[in-house]
Amino acid sequence: MRFELFIASRYLRSRRMHGLVALLTWIATAAVTVSIAALIFALALMNGFRAEIRDKLLQGTAHLNLLKADGSDIENYTELAQRIAQTPGVVAASATTYTPALLALSQRNEPAILKGVDLTAPAAANEVFTTTIEGNPQQLHGSSHSTDDELPGLVIGRELARALNVKLGDQLTASALGTRLTPLGLQPRARSAEFRVVGIFASGLYEYDSKWAYVTLPALQSMIGSGATAGTIQMKVQDIYAVEDIAARVLQTAGREAFVTQSWQELNRPLFSALQLQERVVVSFFSLLIVMAALSIVALLTVLVMQKRQDIAILRTQGATPRMVATIFRWQGLAIGLLGTLAGLPLGLIAIWLANRWRLIALPNEIYSISYIRLTLRLTDGLWVILFTLLVSYLATLYPVAAASRLKPVAALRMQ
After folding, report:
1. pLDDT at site 132
2. Residue 177: band (very low, low, confident or very high) from pLDDT cuts 50, 70, 90
């Protein structure tokens, strides 16, 4: 093995290497280097983007939701939320209700989702206290039957506020479809209420910032006529990746037959599936760049075998076996792949550092509320790139190596 490695290194470092061989050597090494750097940068970008989206989702929504299995509202929700909050793994729990509504200011109308906030629950259970960027969500108070002097408060999404052109202190009209009791039973009834804007929130996700608004749970209950009931018990948990185990304990506390749970993973599975598909496409594209770079290794070794036919013949006549000849050229291909890896890895890391240092990867702030994406490279990704590159480099040597090992010494010498 030392003999083959010695000959391979002599070929790579030979001062007589010029012309096409020298050009192909530089092209092959540069192609592998750039391809590895690009793949590492792309992986770090996808990791950073996925982490930012996940953090924004978890900041602006519940980690786990508890609902009635039959779709009905939850009674005695305060006592149930307090019991659930004692479940191991649950940080805080709060009752809430959602309803579609139409918000109106002057001649402007926008569809929205109103969410009720239980101010008696811990603040950690309600994301509005962490996502509000203007005003104070503590000023949410009252019910929809409050007087004009003390209208119930409303915290509105930033994009929704822009669409309605509202600011703090403005008075909005919210209309929703409620119910009323008649001799024929519960009948739908359009209900409306006046609210005063006391805050503007920004979760960082356009889907929420352009549609959601928060009011107190009593205000929403009286507006839609649901009585003292809630639609959901929402929870924040300690370990977001152990949410399924925590959900099982919550169901044991609440009652498995009467309730069902929805985790953040279930609710956002389409989004993360799309991100995963996008990551696979990006990784496949840049992996193909490495494969294309390996083709230059094939071209280099093919030309090198043609130029070194006399050397191969001499080695064979001196006792070198076809396997030894094959190993010499295999080492050359692997050496180019290794050199490209050793150069491409730090190049990619430098590019990641520069992107983070100067915040080069920016997103539209009006949509994401993320000034830039912080790139993150996982150790497993780096190891995968190295192993993949070396494997492709090895496969690139198979054809030229086979040609070199089949070369007949006598025929090679006659051709000179």
Report:
1. 96
2. confident
From CA 358, how far away is CA 294, in angstroms rounded?
Answer: 33
Nearest to 95 by CA among 192, 228, 200: 228
Dmax over Cα atoms in the chain, in whole Å? 109
Neighbours of 146 (CB within 10 A): 18
End-to-end CA distance of the chain: 28
Dihedral sign, Cα of residue 404, residue 409, residue 411, residue 413: positive
User: Phi and psi (nearest 5°) for 364?
Assistant: -60, 115
3-class secondary structure, 363: coil
**Tens of pLDDT along 338-370?**
999 999 999 999 999 999 999 999 887 666 667
CA gap 1, 323 in Å, rounded: 11
233 contacts 90 by C-beta, under 8 angstroms: no
Amino acid identity at 79: E
pTM for the model stands at: 0.85
Query: How many H-runs (helices) and E-runs (strands) does the chain carry?
Result: 16, 11
Mean pLDDT throughout 375-396? 96
How buried is 78 (Cβ within 10 angstroms: 0-12 exposed, 13-18 middle, 19+ buried)? middle
- Structural tokens at position 393: 């480099």
The DSSP output letter for 123 is: G
Q: Quick one: which of 333, 338, 258 has its CA closest to 297?
A: 333
Q: How far is CA 78 from CA 81, 252, 344, in A?
A: 5, 18, 58
One DSSP character per residue, 135-173 reads E-GGG----TT--GGGPPEEEEEHHHHHHHT--TT-EEE
**Among the residues of 165-205, which ranges form H helices?**
none
Contact 297, 397 (CB under 8 A): yes
Alpha-carbon span 289 to 30, nearest angstrom = 12
Strands 64-68 and 259-263 turn out to be antiparallel
Residue 86: HSE in the Cβ half-sphere, 13 Å Cα cutoff: 8
Give the integer Cα–Cα distance in Å for 97 and 118.
10
